[in-house]
Design a protein that fits this description.
Helix 13 runs parallel beside helix 15 (about 390-415), helix 14 packs antiparallel against helix 15 (about 390-415) and helix 20 (about 540-565) packs antiparallel against helix 21 (about 585-615). The chain is built from 26 helices and four strands. Strands 1-2 form a two-stranded antiparallel sheet. The longest helix is centred in the C-terminal third of the chain and has 31 residues, at about 585-615. By secondary structure, the chain is an all-alpha fold.
């Protein structure tokens, strides 16, 4: 994977996240380039040509290395602007001879003083910023060649006359010397408006001097850049801890180092800088204080902003997250984290792989990182450099995370798992997890054993975390089973046994795991006090409820992936059925059942969308709709009604108007986090308005995609960290539980049997807080 095209934001001085660009070169070409007789850029420690070919680059003994600092984008822009101003001044000088000006607004200085300034050994040398000439002198408060101005035009006494200044531009064959930077406004004024009145010149001079104090080139902005960068980094690191994503085992090793990272931001190694970039990307996605990311736009609060601005909000957040992720990728590559095996490097690779999975519908970019992480893990497990204790601790911390990420990749990409069946035992030996076995103890029994506590003792945080991880492992085992069935060696081979029976068995296993996951959700919601050991984490129960819900959404993904697979037109090629059976008839029956299951999980997804709207961490609604993109036609299926062509056969499988409103509310909030939700929101709202006779009777020509009905309410993504509650009260009115024991909850299958009554959702829609971003009056006319 090439990282040359990755998005790299401009670094600022003292940036705590982005290191300065510097280039280390050698005095001779590398050995491989000399051998091939090609041009080498002589970059140390590996040239660009060898890095691109993924070959070991070496220069041999006796090579000298020189470090060259890249001046940075801002300096290059300043040089170009200064050269442009010089060319414009020369153009005016060739057209007409400027007259002298000795008004009070002219900045003058004697040639003698300029000469003495140039010969001053103590003066700071500046070149290339203002034309082809150079200037020197001590600029107050600045060392970058951009002066500090007082805001008032300097005195005109005792200096060079205006005719001298204009004469400097009469000869086009001589290079332009702009002189001291404080003379630039005066030079521009004298060149452009030589015949203006004294009063007009004073006004223009005041304006030019005032402009020098604005923007990123001003002294205040440059002095505050380093501290602002550090403050933003600290905020994003803190914000990552309030996201439930930080509780995933893939990020556990990185979050444990958070105090050290925050205390040593200015002196971190490349591996720790990559860890900071990963955690900052999590915080940038979930931070409710979007103004720190430059997303606080006037007009959003009162709804007067144009519709395109609403997409800009999510796009700018998306770009910030991608830039941080790309920075982490660059550090992993150029910092040699991928090539050098160590536990620290492995922890960063595991976290980076999980970060990329969260923002990819088809996790192709993260698969390269995961492939290197699994290989490094297996090498370290067999390495003689680590003792047995370190090996077991690494397996306990990272093995289950690698297993889960590999299962997600295999299912969504429909490719064989990177971890073979023979290597599974190595990932689970001597850990608190076991390889799932549907023929052995069931998941419900395992969870009840893990959550059972002695009488009078509260549930520990370790037990709760172990139960959530157990559920996640079983869910990922189902994903791995699907990948094994659809990509195995028997798939589409002549005279191969049919795997349709295995897919039908997988449906039943999904029902079993789904029932246990919902029991765990209700068990966590029934807890009224946070478990011991969670002091300092006000959202611990809320986060573990969300983690259990997100485990169930992975089952929803699997149902959608199975539906896509069964609807493939080439499914019958090489697939047979049992002896004497008609494979076409079998597949048709399975497709009918698959459509019914997809409609049921759509209703479940709508319920989870409104649940996310009531949670403390509302950014997870973005992940929900990202995962629904695995089924591209989900909005079309959700809008179908009973009796319509191809629609649901009964109301049990029909998405109700209330559930459609839950989808719309979730998509309105998801637009705040990513622009990709706007397309689905437009499809959903236009479909609703097209089917609604009440809206058509009003005669309104607008079909606003961010429009909401008068009875609907929106949820603010802004949550005050200081007002966090230490209980699970926000779910109490939604979950009506009969007790805290896990076995007291009846199983709930995704697809009820024919003789079962339609099950009602356990959650009721409560009054929601209002969104702090008002919808625009018309979204369609905004150009969506």
């Amino acid at each position: 994977m090439s990282t040359a095209q990755s998005i790299r934001p401009a670094a600022v001085s003292g940036d705590a996240v982005f290191i300065h660009d510097e280039r280390r070169t050698t005095n001779k070409s590398c050995f491989l380039c000399r051998e091939r007789r090609v041009r080498c850029d002589r970059t140390w420690p590996a040239c660009k040509r060898c890095s691109k070919r993924r070959e070991d680059c070496h220069y041999g003994p006796g090579v000298s290395v020189e470090t060259k600092n890249d001046p940075g984008e801002s300096v290059r822009v300043a040089e170009l602007e200064a050269k442009l101003a010089a060319v414009q001044a020369q153009l005016y000088a060739t057209q007409k001879e400027p007259s002298s000006y000795t008004g009070s607004g002219h900045l003058q200085g004697t040639s003698a003083s300029a000469s003495s300034s140039n010969n001053d050994p103590g003066g700071q040398r500046h070149s290339g910023l203002f034309g082809t000439g150079s200037f020197s002198g001590s600029v107050s408060g600045s060392g970058s060649g951009i002066g500090s101005y007082s805001g008032k035009p300097p005195s005109s006494s005792g200096g060079r006359s205006g005719s001298d200044t204009g004469a400097a531009y009469t000869n086009p064959n001589q290079p332009i010397s702009m002189g001291h930077p404080e003379e630039l406004p005066s030079t521009i004024l004298q060149t452009i408006l030589p015949q203006a009145s004294s009063q007009d010149k004073e006004v223009l001079m005041s304006f030019l001097f005032g402009q020098n104090k604005l923007g990123t080139a001003s002294l205040d902005s440059r002095l505050a850049a380093a501290q602002l960068a550090q403050s933003l980094t600290l905020h994003l690191l803190d914000a990552s801890q309030y996201c439930c994503c930080s509780k995933l085992s893939s990020f556990r090793a990185l979050t444990d180092k958070l105090p050290y990272l925050k205390a040593n931001l200015s002196s971190l190694s490349p591996v720790n800088q990559a860890a900071v970039a990963i955690l900052c990307a999590i915080g940038a996605r979930g931070s409710p204080h979007s103004a720190l990311l430059g997303i606080d736009i006037p007009g959003l609060a009162n709804g007067t902003a144009p519709p395109s601005v609403y997409l800009t909000v999510g796009a700018r957040r998306e770009n910030a997250c991608r830039a941080l992720a790309d920075r982490a990728i660059d550090l992993c590559w150029y910092g040699r984290l991928i090539k050098e095996g160590s536990r620290e490097n492995l922890e960063v690779l595991v976290g980076l792989s999980a970060l990329l999975i969260l923002d990819e519908v088809q996790p192709r970019k993260s698969r390269f990182i995961l492939r290197n992480a699994t290989g490094m893990f297996e090498d370290l497990q067999r390495s003689d450099d680590l003792d047995q204790r370190e090996t077991l601790d690494m397996r306990q911390t990272l093995a289950s995370a690698l297993f889960r990420d590999d299962a997600v990749h295999a299912a969504q990409l429909n490719q064989p798992p990177l971890i073979s069946s023979f290597e599974l035992e190595e990932y689970f030996t001597c850990t608190d997890q076991r390889i799932p076995d549907f023929g052995g103890p069931q998941l419900s029994a395992i969870l009840e054993q893990q959550l059972r506590t002695p009488d009078g003792e509260p549930l520990s945080l370790e037990a709760l975390e172990r139960a959530v991880n157990t559920v996640s492992v079983w869910v990922c085992f189902c994903q791995r089973t699907f990948a094994r069935i659809t990509t195995g060696r028997w798939f589409r081979r002549p005279r191969a046994p049919s795997a349709l029976g295995d897919l039908a068995t997988l449906w039943r296993q999904i029902d079993t795991v789904h029932s246990s996951v919902q029991r765990l959700q209700q068990f966590i919601v029934a807890l009224t006090e946070p478990p011991p050991g969670s002091e300092g984490d006000p959202y611990v129960l809320d986060h573990y409820v969300l983690l259990a819900v997100r485990a169930d959404t992975r089952l929803i993904d699997l149902v959608n992936l199975m539906h896509k697979f069964l609807m493939r037109p080439d499914l019958l090629d090489g697939w047979g059925g049992p002896p004497g059976a008609n494979p076409v008839e079998i597949i048709q029956r399975m497709r009918i059942e698959s459509v019914m299951r997809v409609r049921k999980v759509l209703k479940l997804s709508a319920f989870y969308a409104q649940l996310y709207l009531q949670s403390q961490d509302k950014h997870v609604v973005h992940h929900l709709f990202m995962q629904l993109e695995l089924l591209p036609s989900w909005t079309f299926l959700a809008l179908q009604r009973v009796g319509s062509p191809g629609g649901p056969t009964s109301e049990e499988f029909e998405v109700t108007p209330e559930e459609l409103e839950w989808f719309a509310m979730g998509l309105r909030l998801a637009v705040y986090y990513t622009p990709r939700a706007a397309v689905r929101l437009h499809e959903l709202t236009t479909g609703q308005h097209r089917k609604s006779s009440a809206v058509s009777s009003t005669g309104s020509s607008a079909t606003p995609a961010l429009y909401h009905s008068p009875n609907s309410k929106l949820v603010s993504p802004v949550v005050s960290y200081a007002n966090a509650s230490n209980n699970n009260a926000q779910y109490a009115s939604n979950l009506q539980n009969s007790g805290a024991a896990l076995g007291s909850f009846p199983p709930i299958s995704i697809l009820p049997q024919a003789d079962e009554e339609p099950l009602q959702l356990q959650f009721s829609l409560d009054d929601l807080q209002h969104f702090d971003i008002a919808p625009p009056p018309d979204f369609v006319r905004g150009g969506v």
